[in-house]
Amino acid sequence: MKLSIPRACGSWSKSPPVSTTLHKPISFYSSIPSSSPLKPQVPLFLRPPIHSATLSDLQKWHHWAKTLPVPHSDDPPDPTLLRRELKWLLEDALEVHSSVPQMGSHSDDRPIKLRTSLEQLYSVWRQRIEERRPFQYVVGCEHWRDLVLSVQDGVLIPRPETEVFVDLVGDVVTQNGDLTQGLWADLGTGSGAIAIGIGRILGPRGRVIATDLSPVAVSVASFNVQRYSLQDIIEIRQGSWFEPLKDVEGKLSGLVSNPPYIPSDHISGLQPEVGWHEPRLALDGGVDGIDALLHLCNGAASMLKPGGFFIFETNGEKQCKFLVDYMENESKGNFYDVKIVPDFAGIQRFVTGFHH
Amino acid sequence: MAAQSLWRLFLRVPSSSPSLTAVATARRKFGMSCRMSFSSENSSSGSGSREFLGLSDEQLMKQCEMSTFKSSGPGGQHRNKRESAVRLKHLPTGIIAQAVEDRSQHKNRASALARLRTLLALKVRNSIDLDTYSPPLELLQILPAKSTIRTSDCGPQIGPNNPKFALGMLALLDLIFAVEGSISDAAKLMGLSTGALSRLVLSDDSLRMAVNELRTSKGLKPLK
């Protein structure tokens, strides 16, 4: 495989092309003045149960939702997964989930307390099926490891594959206790998933700085950090990659990132839930998908302290091999113990290593 | 592996067993085979699933190889919620437990581990020396009151809905395996009539299926 290395790497520290070219204003917040902090949406399961519906009306909705026809698509949603999502939607929407023991049994006028109106339930499920809106945006959260993280439009939904970051960091700090007390950085944090997972491993003496260019991501990550009471350990900063980290250059014990890595011309062919709804800023990695990863590799050498550890998530085998080769040749002498780690589906997914 | 000689393994997963429904679904969905590897039969020592079931989750997890389902495509950022399904292979026995229904991979791992414990109880037999056999308390507790070996300190009979039933079931299966599936032989040792033991076996689906699978493999008629 031939990957073109952008030769303009050196100039990226000022203005990475990924960020500037792809950072389009997102409609629903572009009208808000940039100085006012964004108010994150509250996930469905955390909203007060101020609505209600009769059991029979809820059953009607449930039947409608189960049988709503899925528009034709080359990549239709899996019916088994949709049924599971419907169950999860009810779990989040009902105050007491066990209050609907037999969906589909005969009529019943018992009122059921809901965290959203019945009209909204019709509307959001229509969006799920007809607009292929991701289920996680519908309920405003994603279950990730043992965390329940708030997500909303404009923030990448954390993937199951990425759960491995936390295990990898756990292994490294077990073998090397000094790294627990150091400063870690999660670049392009999105919902804050990796930063929160790591923050909980490091414990009270650890510190994590999580950055993101997107103001929505910054607001959602801050919400999630506070929900897990980690604000003393995790600091969220807005900005592009290393830009908000100038004060900690050469001081990082760890650097982790799940940057955009999908090649630009693959974006239009993505699953509708991803391509139509998730932020391009978090997905598009340039022509070969490797722009942001190379930028991170180049920055890692100056940001990490000696012995500092890094993990980057990649698109798969090609990018992993390319990065390892890049670190061993172009960036010779900066890193050691550079390894490729597969995800649980057996795909070469992560590159890890240490700074000399 | 030396320890393998200690276990008798039951080879096939009964695909209709209620506790295994999710596994069977996953198998259909992912087109995966769920065959178990097996070890030789040898009953030289009283070790087996009891030993595994005594392990902490963490210790048991260390004996497992974990994977998600290999699905086509690149995964990662490309997919919304690629299956967070988890598949655990218990390396010492080859038993595979899976979970797909939870919302995070982490929770599916916990569910798969719980399922593995059930499978270990059902599939991995503890060997018994019939000459010196004395039934453990957990077995006595699931027997009906009319059993002549039951003593008054056993308390009332524990039924299939009680979580403690599983341990008793494990011990009963060990015994039925030791007598090669003969309900009348096992009934004598339990101080019960053949009919009464038969009713006990039939009272729980997974117990019934495990016993019937053994009986079929020995050329005996399944209990109905």
Automatic annotation (TrEMBL), chain A:
The answer to whether keyword Phosphoprotein applies is no
What keywords would UniProt list here? Methyltransferase, S-adenosyl-L-methionine, Transferase
Tell me which InterPro entries the record gives. Answer: DNA_methylase_N6_adenine_CS, HemK-like, RF_glutamine_MTase_cyano, SAM-dependent_MTases_sf, Small_mtfrase_dom
By its UniProt entry, which CDD domains does this protein fall under?
AdoMet_MTases (cd02440)
Q: Which residues form the Methyltransferase small domain?
A: 180-261
| NCBIfam families linked to this entry | hemK_fam
PANTHER family xrefs: PTHR47441, RELEASE FACTOR GLUTAMINE METHYLTRANSFERASE
Task: State the protein's name.
Answer: Methyltransferase small domain-containing protein
Species per Swiss-Prot/TrEMBL record: Vitis vinifera (Grape)
TrEMBL record, chain B:
InterPro entries under this entry?
Pep_chain_release_fac_I, Pep_chain_release_fac_I_sf, Prokaryotic/Mito_RF
**Superkingdom classification of source:** Eukaryota
Q: Which residues form the Prokaryotic-type class I peptide chain release factors domain?
A: 62-121
One of the entry's Gene Ontology molecular-function terms is: translation release factor activity
Question: What's the short name of a Pfam family annotated to this entry?
Answer: RF-1
Q: Which family does it belong to?
A: Belongs to the prokaryotic/mitochondrial release factor family.
What is the designated name of this protein? Prokaryotic-type class I peptide chain release factors domain-containing protein
Specify the species.
Vitis vinifera
